Amino acid sequence: MMAKGSDPVEVGGEKTPIRMLHDRVLVAVDPEAGERRSSGGIVIPATAAMGSRRLAWSKVVGVGSHARAVEVGDRVLFDPEDKAEVEVGGELYVVMRERDIHAVAAERVGETPTGLYL
Question: Of 1.10.10.10, 2.30.33.40, 3.90.550.10, 3.30.450.20, which CATH number belongs to 24-110?
Answer without folding.
Answer: 2.30.33.40
